[in-house]
Amino acid sequence: MFDTGILDTVIGLFFLYALLALVNSALVELVIGYANLRGENLFRTLKSLLPCDKGCMVSAETLYAHGAIAAMSPEGMAPGRPSYLPPALLVDVLSQTLFNSQAVQQASDTAQSELDALKAAVLADPAPAPAKELILLAIERAQRATGTAAEQLAAFRAALEELFNDSVERAQGWFKRRVQLISLGLSLVLCVAVNADTIQIARTLNSDPELRKSVVEMAVKTLQERAEAENATAATNNTAVETHNTTALLAGTCPESTALYKQYQANGTTPPNELTANVLSCLDASLQQHADTLLSTFPLGWHDAPRPATPSSRLAKVLGLLISTLAVSLGAAFWFKLLEQVIRLSGRRIPLTSEAPAGSENKPV
Which spans are transmembrane here (predicted)? Predict the structure, then answer.
C-alpha cells in the first residue's frame, strides 16, 4: 500500500516541474521567436547548399532577394528572414532563377533541351562544388525519367524539392540540439531565480499536509482543464504536430495560434507578421498565466527562504537547484504525462486526453 503523504509529495514535485517546464518552454519560444533562430537556421542550411555570394548563377542571397521570398520575411526581427519556406515556393524561385540566368540562355542555343542547357551552364559556373553537385544530381535524376521535356522538367523540380527536404531535415537535428542547450540554460536561470530547490520543497510538502492537499487539488484541476482543452482542440483539428514547435506548446492553450501556424505550414499563405504577432502574444499570456499559478501554489522565492549557513546546507541547496534544472529541461509534456499516471495511481480520476492523429507530422523547409 502506498503512503499517501509520500505519493502526494511526489505529485507536488511533478506538478512543480511541469509548471516550471511550461514557463521555460514559453521563454525558449520567446527567445527563438524574437531572435528568429528558425529563420537563421533555415538560411544557414540554404547557404551550406548554395555556398556562393556573387558571380554565380544562384546563391542563398539571390534566393532571399527574390520578391516572393522577401515578402515573407518578418519585419523587425533579427536577422529578418522567414522561419519557414514552402518547398514548392523555394523550388519555383530556384528554378526561375536558374532558367532565367544569362548562362542558361546562352547555352540553350546549342543544347537539345532546357535541362541540357542548364547542365552545361552549371558545369561552367564558378560556384563551389556543393552548389553544383546539388543541381547536377537533380538534373541526372530528371534525365533518367522517361517522358516528354515537360515531364522531365517536372521530375527535375520534384528531385530538387526532395533534395532540399532531405538537407533541411538533417539540419533540424542541429537546430534541436541548439534549442536543448538554450532550454537547459534558461532552466537553470529560472530555477535559481524562483529558488526552485527540489530538496527544500520536498521537505516543505512532506511536513505541511494543508499545503500538500492544496497542491494536489491544483494539480488535478490543471490536468482536467488541459484534458478538456486538448480534447476540444482535437475536435476542431487544431492539435500539435511538432515536438519542438510553437504548436506543441500552444495546443490546448492557444488554439487560434495553433490553427494559424498549421495553416501557414500547409501553404505559406498566412502573412508572417500576423503569425509572429499572434504566436508571441499568446506566449506572453501563457507565460504570465503559468507564472501566476506557480507563485500562488508553491512556496517559491528567496525573500522568506532560510539562508544556507553550513557547507552541507549549501551543498544541499546547489543539489536541489540542479535537480530542478535537469527536471525542468525534460519538458512539460514529459512531466504532465508522468503526473497523470501518478495521480491515477493515487486513486483520483481525471479525464483522458486525446492523442494527436496519426500521420499528422509535418516537416517544413
Answer: 12-37
Q: Is 301 left (phi over 0), alpha (psi -120 to 50) or beta?
A: left
Category of 197 on φ-ψ map: left (φ > 0), alpha (ψ -120 to 50) or beta: beta
Chain centroid, CA 263 distance in Å? 16
What's the pTM? 0.69
Rounded-to-integer distance, Cα 157 and Cα 184, Å: 40
Residue 53 near residue 93, CB atoms below 8 Å: no
Question: What phi, psi does 74 have (nearest 5°)?
Answer: -70, 140
Tell me how far apart the alpha carbons of residues 81 and 71 are, in angstroms, rounded to a whole number. 10
List average pLDDT for each run of 10 residues in the chain, which is 365 residues long: 76 91 86 82 85 77 83 59 82 87 80 83 80 85 80 87 84 85 94 92 90 87 72 42 39 52 53 54 60 71 79 92 95 89 80 45 40
Q: What's the rounded Cα separation, in Å, for the pair 305 and 289?
A: 24
Q: How far apart are CA 95 and CA 58, in angstroms?
A: 10
Kindly state the cell numbers that stand for 68. 516572393
What long-range pairs does 108-115 form, CB within 8 A, spacing at least 24?
Answer: 113/149, 113/152, 114/149, 114/153, 115/139, 115/142, 115/143, 115/149, 115/152, 115/153, 115/156
Residue 354: other Cβ atoms inside 10 A: 15
Alpha helices (H) along the chain: 4-35, 37-49, 60-65, 67-70, 87-99, 102-107, 114-124, 129-144, 149-194, 198-207, 209-235, 246-250, 255-267, 272-297, 311-328, 332-345
Helix axes 114-124, 87-99, angle to 10 degrees: 80
